[in-house]
Amino acid sequence: MTNRQLKETFRSTSGTVRWDRQGPENGKPVVLLHGTPFSSFIWRETAQALAQQHQVFVWDMPGYGSSEKRQGQDVSLAAQGEVFAQLLEHWQLSDPAVIAHDFGGAVALRAHLLHNAAYRGLALVDPVALAPWGSPFFRLAGQNAETFEQLPLPLHRALVRAYISSASFQGLRPGAAEQLVAPWSDENGRAAFYRQIAQADQRHTDEIQELYPRISLPVMVCWGAEDTWIPMAKGHELAAAIPGARLTVIPDAGHLVPLDAPAVLASALLTFLRTLP
């Protein structure tokens, strides 16, 4: 299992972003956002399925995957929301459909609610969107980032692998864990891993949570029934907070729904996309 290479680059205010697109040029645009500590790799199978009919854009956020990672980099939710708005302008997309997982859900919501990014529709897959969020490990690492950065690389890699694997209910398939751990595996990646955790601040979702009732575009909320990172109750709460939003529960899937149940998720997303103008 190998990652599709992201061939294009964009200079954002938070560093160089790597991105790519696939599918017919005349297809309606769909943009996929990953979460943390992941990359666009999680969308590999979903992107292939959607690209049969749609023009699909994938990207690694600054500080993630194959995009730029550097000391002093702003990789907060606030910065990522601004970068996404910049990317949409760069791509000249005025009303794409947006599909966002985990942290990417908050990025898409912030870009829409605070930066006037317009979407044809929005699908949120196990998103970070409602307080409180952050696992005990996430909070511990955020409060002690400088200490964790001193971990020997083999211990760091083992920690990251165990952490990422815990997001899957099915168990990650051969090669998937390696692809997800690889961007964090060298010294630069180790620093970037704890940097993004240290900058994760719930105030960036608190700022927009009260605005959810104002959302007027079509929204689908998808949730892995076995998600242990963000409980299913948050899916019901979020769907209730957004007017007209409907909740789709994906059975036998954990937080990493795009890898645990790619076919079922792709089917749900294609059904949602067909309902959009």
Automatic annotation (TrEMBL):
The keyword Hydrolase applies. The keyword Hydrolase applies. GO terms for molecular function: hydrolase activity. This is Alpha/beta hydrolase. It comes from Streptomyces enissocaesilis. Gene3D superfamilies: alpha/beta hydrolase. Residues 1-21 are annotated as: Disordered. Transmembrane segments: none annotated. Keywords: Hydrolase. Residues 1-10 have a biased composition (Basic and acidic residues). It comes from the Bacteria. Pfam families: Abhydrolase_1. PANTHER family: HYDROLASE ALPHA/BETA FOLD FAMILY, PIMELOYL-[ACYL-CARRIER PROTEIN] METHYL ESTER ESTERASE. Residues 28-262 form the AB hydrolase-1 domain.
